[in-house]
Amino acid sequence: MNMAKLTVHGDDLTLKSILEVLPTEPERQWRKGEPKGAGRVYLDSGFELLVAQASQAQVLPSRIRSYLSECRSRGVTFSMPRIVAELQFELRGGESPGAPTAVPLDLPLGDLAVFSEMGISLSVATRA
Question: How many structural domains comprise the chain?
Fold first, then answer.
């Protein structure tokens, strides 16, 4: 399955104000100082939520647009001091016989401009 997840971390008070108006609940949350494995701890609080999921990667951009449009209508932005937001794409190729191993994902300039305006950076991972 191809998916887009939003990971946000930073200042507790600002995160709380964002969480109150998001259109969906986070899949995962953590607090500053909590253990995260291998003897390490989180340096700041944060959350992760699923923005879009689709069997075909080409469908993700329209679902992301819809989600971010809803966020904007609720006044959500991530371009605040002490907040870092990253939209993570996980693209899967070659899941069925004869399927291409490279998965195309086209993001028009308008989408990239929205990400920038909202303070969202991008991360892309592909899996065979």
Answer: 1
